[in-house]
Amino acid sequence: MTDKNSRKYAVVDLEATSGSASAMIIQVGIVIIKNDRIVETYQTDVNPHEALTEHIVALTGITDEQLAQAPDFSQVAAAIYNLIKDCVFVAHNVKFDANLLAEHLFLEGFDLRTPRVDTVELTQVFYPHFEKYSLVSLAAELQLDLSEAHTAIADALATAQLFLKLKKKIEGLPKEALEKLLPLADNLLFESRMLLDEALIKAPLLSQKEYTEVGQLILKKSLPLPKKRKLSQDFTVNLALLGLEAREKQKAFAQLVETGLSDQSPSFLEAQAGLGKTYAYLLPLLSKSSDRQLIVSVPTKVLQDQIMANEVKKIKDVFHLPCHSIKGPRNYIKLDAFAESLNHESSNRLINRYKMQILVWLLETETGDLDEIKQKQRFESYFDSLRHDGKLRKQSQYFPVDFWRQSYENAKSSQLLLTNHAYFLERVQDDKAFAEKKVLVFDEAQKLLLNLEQFSRRSLNLSQLLPLVQHWSKDSQQLIEKRLLESLSFHLDYIMEQFHQTKDGHLDLTAVNQLQQNLSELNRAELQPLKEMITGSFTEFWLSSEINQEKRQMYLNAGREDFLNFKSFLPELKKLYFISATLDISPKVSLPGLLGFTDVDFARLPKTKNSSQRIWLDRTMPIITQLSAADYAQELTGRLFQLLTLKKPILVLFTSIQSMLMVSEELEKAGILHLTQEKNGTASKVKQKFEAGDSQLLLGTGSFWEGADFVAADRMIEVITRLPFDNPEDFFVKKMNKRLKKEGKHPFYDYSLPLMILRLKQAIGRTLRRSSQRSAVLIMDSRILNKTYSPVIYHALDEEFYLSNQKFADCLAEIEDFLI
């Protein structure tokens, strides 16, 4: 091995007959780097003397005919060995490439013992904010040249570029930061730490202008904003300054927002998705009411992050306005907790790697929001231990730089404050001044009802609590406490067992009284959340279960029969807006009425159809109630087989987990590659795999109906297996039905049916998020055609979408033509 100054790196990529250790090499690409420059390249095909699978041919573009003309590995082994024997072996997933090549070389008499460096793990550590670390994804993020992915020399050249970017980034880190990383660097794969050792020699000293060192941590300093620029009073001018061109509907919506400022009543504004509503309300409100803080609340943290990273960032960069995004404390890292974890050496290599990742992230983050780190699913429990609890010790050395405290303070002085419905409700409950006399916008306001319901409920994870109670009962030294804990453990275990046997989650008064009796005599602080739930003002209790981190968890839920009056909950405001694509529920039931408002300004833009999306109704799908669960699964599976022949990504939405799993089993029997929510990972994880091209078929439920946008594919098929009616046994549904009956309204026609249509429209919109996309939606629930309420659904869809009502075979042919 040469010395550090003349060290050479061989960046290697192999294409092989499979991903297994026994695979045969079919292509080799090598790039030699010296003195941070590419000095030589090598490529060759290799004849494996076996036929390639269809998958490998499709993935690499390599054919059997091409390889038939190629040399055997024995003919090129010496050249490969002599080229790389005195180099550091670098690869993207070095374990596979290095082991496979070393095995092939060994069989030809060459013993490869070079050090190894893995670019996958190094990229995960030094680019902690990326969502994916495949070479294709990194090429897009870091502008690597990867014009022919999955050919060995193209992948090797892209990996070489990645390696040089990594080297440059590591060498540019402060020397003090590298010194904090090096004690953990032995946890990196193979000899990857050598890049940090080399970088330490070249690294600059800490810049006091860019960073601040506090205790064990080095943090990025926030730079002050340049002088604020005044927005124009003209919406189109402001949009032009952002480098954007106004659309006619967007201008019309902006005018509705501006007109609403002169009306003291709350403004409910409705317009279809896709017209650029966010800019259409942000720019007029920031320019016309600059004397008051503008608070924008959205339904989810995911949407909050999206708006902050896109529209708000652009406004901030151009106009230099103080803009801030705030969430609950648990979203932020607690620096004391992380510093403490650094003091405790872990035997887990991956946790130590996460510590390195966080140390690098702290050099870059301005928010301390842990959602910026995307790859934390495997050790979520470690990240949970670092989440902020909202408590601060002024004596802590990290108090002045605490991210949650800074976020709380920045929220007071920002002209634009972005938050989410859940945090807004929690905050305003305790602090009316947070929103008082300000301009407040609720985006996607139709979701407020459910947020309000969740806010007025309590939920407790019994799967976590029960083992703790059992442990306390064994360890307790006080006989009375021991017996009370044993009794509590018995009753909790009993109600969970009953739920598993009967699937009836409702807790009767006897079960609640038994829990109350046990808890009234127990004074453990850890039981306080359960005690407050059981002995509080809640009137209904029920059990539910869900799969969380691929484990089934049981929850105890508590709710109230009465609804929160949202109007009276809010403080006095300068102006209030509710904005959505769907604010009307039905002629008799409106969102303003359900929220407690009577005197409102209601305006909407006319709806138009989008030619990039069409809906097909499968008239030959059998009536669901006339089929067994197994026959229904087979009917769905048969249609999916035929849709797969169109070779387009397919999203299949289910309302039942059982149906989804049964269809998945049928697909497995047929050997069809597919992804299934929870079975193959969480919703976000399987969505990532689907959009990365791991499979062309994704089965999903739950959050896929309204919380996941599909933007990657230019052409896509969405299959809706059943109309998304609410479960009539759901606590909220029963509560709403009771209220509507009291008011003389029809729960089904005035609420459940219209709400189902709104949910259906939201689901349809998930697969058309760009102007260049085309989306074909196939609805396979015959209730849309053969029920007394069918015309209501048909008319509602026909207002906004092009519909086709056909036999399945004709649907298939029309979809194929549409997606060309």
From TrEMBL:
Q: Where does ATP bind?
A: 271-278
Q: What class of enzyme is it?
A: hydrolase
Molecular-function annotations in GO? 3'-5' exonuclease activity; ATP binding; DNA binding; DNA-directed DNA polymerase activity; helicase activity; hydrolase activity, acting on acid anhydrides, in phosphorus-containing anhydrides
Q: Which GO terms describe its cellular component?
A: cytosol
- Tell me which residues make up the Helicase ATP-binding domain: 236-503
One GO biological process this protein is involved in is: DNA replication proofreading
CDD domains given in the database record: DEDDh (cd06127)
Top-level taxon: Bacteria
Pinpoint motif DEAH box by residue range.
443-446
So which residues are the signal peptide here?
A: none
Tell me the keywords, alphabetical order. Answer: ATP-binding, DNA replication, DNA-directed DNA polymerase, Exonuclease, Helicase, Hydrolase, Nuclease, Nucleotide-binding, Nucleotidyltransferase, Transferase
Query: SMART domains from the xrefs?
Result: EXOIII, HELICc2
Q: What is its EC number?
A: 3.1.-.-
UniProt domain Helicase C-terminal: residue ranges: 639-809
Its function, per the record, reads:
3'-5' exonuclease.
The family note in this entry says: Belongs to the helicase family. DinG subfamily. Type 2 sub-subfamily.
| UniProt xrefs under PANTHER family | DNA POLYMERASE III SUBUNIT EPSILON
Protein name from the UniProt record: 3'-5' exonuclease DinG
Which gene carries the instructions for this protein? dinG
